[in-house]
Structures are given as C-alpha cells and as structure tokens.
C-alpha cells in the first residue's frame, strides 16, 4: 500500500478573497485575521452602563462592539462611548437615516443600516457621502426574518436566494452613490439556510462577510448552532468577521467566538485546555477540578496548551501535545507532565496549584512579563 501523504500542513480551504475595509484600527476582509464582534445589551441611552459593558467586552477579547441606536438620546451618547474604549464601536440603526448621520458625525467606526429601509435614494446619498467623508464602512444586515414582502411572496419563504437578492439590492443603492466600503451579513436562525445564503453571497459579490446565526438561542444551543454554521463557512474559507448571537451575557458571545476561531486555527493566544471526559479509571472529581483550573487560567494572554487528565496510565500519553498538564492517579497522588513526559509526582490536592504555577512560569518565559492569573 502506498503512503497516505500529508494533510496536516494544508489549510482547510483557501480563504475567499474579499474586499478589505477598516473599522477604525481594525482591518476586516482581505487577508486580515477573522475578528470577533459582539453587541452591547445595555440601553445605549444609559451611557455609563454601555461604556462599562463595552469595556468588559474589550477585556474579554472582543474586536469590535455594536450598540443599538433607537433614538436621539442614544445617539447623543455615541461619541462618549466610542472614546471610552479602544475597540471600534459600530452603530446599529434601523430605518432612520437621520440617526445614521448623527452616528457618523459622533465618530463611530462603522454603521449597520440597510439602505433600502431609510426612505429613498436621496437619503442613501446623504448617508453614503457622510460615511465616505469619514472613511466609515456600512454593514448591510439581511435577516431571514425580515425580508422584503415582495421577495417573500416570490420565493415563498426566506430562501437563501431571496436573502442574497435582498443584499444585492441594498448593495446597488450604495454602489450607485460610488460607495464600496461595504460589509454584508445574511443571518438566519436556521443553520442550513444561513450556510447556503453565505455560500451564494460569496459567489455573487466580493464584499467582506460578517457571519452569524441570528436568534441562535441560549448559551448551549446558541453556541452549538453558531459553531456549526459559522464553523462550516470558515472551514470553507468564507467569512471575515463573526458574531455569535446568544441570549446570554455578551461576554459569553466573545468567549465562544474566540474558541470557535481557535478551534479552526484562526486565532492564537490564551489558554487552550485539553481535558479528558473522565471514565471509571478516574478517582477524583475531574469536572469540578477542571472548571477551577479553567477559571484560574482564563485570563492568560500567551498561547499555552494545558491538559487536565483523569488517570496516570493514559493521561500524559493522550495529552502529548500539551505544553503542561496534570494526570490524577490512585492513592491520592498525581503527575505533572510536560509534552507528555512526566516531570514530577505530587499529592493530588497539590496538583492544581502546581499546574497553575507551571503555567505562570511558562507564560512568564514566553512573554517576558508576569501573566494575569485569577486567584
Ligand atoms: S485519561 Fe484516563 S480517566 Fe481520562 S478518559 Fe482517558 S482513560 Fe479515562
């Protein structure tokens, strides 16, 4: 039999070539890394609460944050919110071109508004001109649940083709104003519909794509749906920025988004945890121990692979790729290992501490500075 050849060094797919844009300092599209976005859940009229939440999202690793702008009172706060964080702030506007103009004037890094919904080409012209003057991109956000009536009647349901046709209509309105700093999303709550819509869009135009499954649900269901939908597309090379939509604290959206990218090798940094599912060979409460370790190391900034394994027999070997790991054993002892090789034996109740200390020293060595480790 001939050799099987090597697949490991190949990317999963060639990345789709999209037209690059900039959200302030953040590059999106082209060959820029895929970024993670989220949306504040606070009332934007409450300036301090929105600033606080945007800062929490920034600290969690969010690359860009969107805020809802339902009225003038919310628009009044945009300048202060944008100044209070270092990540780009994007104004989310529905139907009201006047609010879009106010947001652009306030200094946001991007606007999400659908040109077909703001009352005619004259208003589109005003918004496009203002955005162009300030170098602000516009995201067209097509949603399967709010398609134009005529498209729904023609296709009979929110078909991927109807979603892409809707996007193209909005795009044309901006292109007619000589505006091309465009990003497009085609979200649906049904994963196959969303995947098909983005695939079709990727073949239809070259604008950057913002991926998401909309109304995906709670932390567990929404994370799974998002990981499947967004993950499939990214694995095919489609997508430039992502948002995991969850009915949960938006910090969770960011964490899930980052893990999603890391699992596809599209983002570096931070701790990657390898932990076994435990089985009858394990003699400690692995689930609680692993949760404690994950919490203790969640803010590590350097790339480090950590393993928590339930037994001495298989643990170190199964976690060969981890930089450092522990394996629990019988008789209240356990092993600390590096790259699958055992370096020391500890009492089981000292293992967690030994692991955290070892990660601390690895991170220190790699970064030349002390890591942040939760107590
Ligand atoms: S590492 Fe040991 S305890 Fe964990 S699943 Fe494998 S055999 Fe079971």
Explain this structure.
The chain has 375 residues and is α/β, with parallel strands linked by helices. It has 2 domains: 21-263, TIM Barrel (Alpha-Beta Barrel), CATH 3.20.20; 271-367, Sulfite Reductase Hemoprotein, domain 1 (2-Layer Sandwich), CATH 3.30.413.10. Helix content is 40%, strand content 19%. It has 13 helices and 15 strands. It has helices spanning 47-59, 72-76, 78-84, 97-106, 121-134, 149-155, 160-175, 191-204, 219-235, 250-263, 286-296, 315-318, 351-367, and strands at 21-23, 26-28, 35-39, 64-68, 89-92, 110-112, 138-143, 182-187, 208-211, 241-243, 271-275, 304-309, 324-328, 333-338, 341-347. The strands form 3 sheets. It has an 8-stranded parallel β-barrel with strand order 3-4-5-6-7-8-9-10, surrounded by 6 helices. Helix 4 links the parallel strand 5 and strand 6. The longest helix has 17 residues, at 219-235. The protein is elongated. It starts with 20 loop residues before the first strand and ends in an 8-residue tail after the last helix. Bound molecules: iron/sulfur cluster. Residues 276-279, 281-282, 309-311, 314-315, 318 line the site of iron/sulfur cluster.
């Amino acid at each position: 039999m001939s050799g099987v050849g090597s697949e490991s060094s190949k990317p999963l797919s060639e990345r789709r070539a999209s037209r690059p844009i900039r959200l302030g300092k953040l590059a999106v599209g082209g060959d820029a890394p895929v970024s993670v976005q989220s949306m504040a859940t606070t009332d934007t009229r409450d300036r301090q609460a929105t600033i606080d939440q945007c800062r929490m999202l920034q600290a969690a690793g969010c690359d860009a944050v969107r805020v809802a702008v339902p009225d003038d009172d919310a628009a009044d706060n945009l300048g202060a919110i944008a100044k209070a964080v270092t990540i780009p702030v994007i104004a989310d506007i529905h139907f009201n071109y006047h609010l879009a103009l106010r947001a652009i004037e306030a200094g946001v890094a991007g606007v999400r508004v659908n040109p077909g919904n703001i009352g005619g080409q004259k208003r589109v012209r005003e918004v496009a001109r203002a955005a162009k003057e300030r170098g602000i991109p516009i995201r067209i956000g097509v949603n399967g649940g709010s398609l134009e009536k005529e498209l729904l009647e023609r296709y009979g349901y929110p078909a991927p083709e109807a979603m892409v046709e809707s996007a193209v209509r909005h795009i044309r309105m901006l292109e007619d104003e000589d505006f091309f700093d465009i990003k497009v999303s085609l979200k649906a709550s049904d994963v196959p519909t969303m995947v098909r819509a983005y695939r079709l869009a990727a073949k239809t135009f070259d604008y950057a794509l913002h991926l998401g499954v909309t109304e995906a649900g709670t932390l567990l269901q929404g994370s799974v749906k998002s990981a499947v939908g967004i993950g499939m597309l990214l694995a095919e090379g489609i997508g430039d920025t992502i948002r995991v939509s969850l009915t949960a604290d938006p910090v969770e959206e960011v964490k899930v988004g980052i893990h999603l990218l890391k699992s596809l090798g599209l983002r570096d940094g931070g701790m990657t945890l390898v932990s076994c599912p435990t089985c009858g060979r394990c003699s400690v409460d692995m689930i609680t121990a692993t949760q404690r370790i994950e919490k203790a190391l969640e803010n590590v900034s350097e790339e480090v692979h950590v393993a928590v394994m339930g037994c001495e027999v298989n643990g170190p070997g199964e976690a060969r790729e981890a930089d450092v790991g522990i394996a629990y054993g019988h008789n209240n002892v356990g092993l600390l290992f590096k790259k699958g090789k055992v370096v020391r034996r500890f009492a089981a109740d000292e293992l967690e501490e030994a692991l955290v200390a070892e990660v601390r020293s690895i991170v220190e060595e790699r970064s030349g500075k002390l890591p942040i480790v939760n107590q």
